[in-house]
Amino acid sequence: MDTMPLEYKLVIIFIVAGILNLLLKRNRNWVLGYRSTRCLKSHDRFAYANRIFGWGLIILGLMYLGTLVYLAHGGDELTGWESAFIIVGYLALLFILIEYKLSKAFKE
């Protein structure tokens, strides 16, 4: 029985989590979502940050899928460390972007 590789499951998780963040961006009690001291100061900030975070997760999922397909087409695979480096690096850049956009949008 052939099972789906973990990397493709991660793509699905990122895309679904991104869509859920976009749909439930006004609900601070939702389990998923971006939270920081700056973003939790008001509902508007929370919604703004989670709109960026939701789109960022969708883009991460699609970019990661593109990387996997490109490498598979060439016969290569990502190691666990390479996958972790890509995902953690992208999320770190996304968090920095969200904090920057929050500080500019809400004049801090």
Automatic annotation (TrEMBL):
<dbReference type="Pfam" id="PF13630">
    <property type="entry name" value="SdpI"/>
</dbReference>
<keyword id="KW-0812">Transmembrane</keyword>
<dbReference type="InterPro" id="IPR025962">
    <property type="entry name" value="SdpI/YhfL"/>
</dbReference>
<feature type="transmembrane region" description="Helical">
    <location>
        <begin position="78"/>
        <end position="98"/>
    </location>
</feature>
<protein>
    <submittedName>
        <fullName>SdpI family protein</fullName>
    </submittedName>
</protein>
<feature type="transmembrane region" description="Helical">
    <location>
        <begin position="6"/>
        <end position="24"/>
    </location>
</feature>
<keyword id="KW-1133">Transmembrane helix</keyword>
<feature type="transmembrane region" description="Helical">
    <location>
        <begin position="52"/>
        <end position="72"/>
    </location>
</feature>
<keyword id="KW-0472">Membrane</keyword>
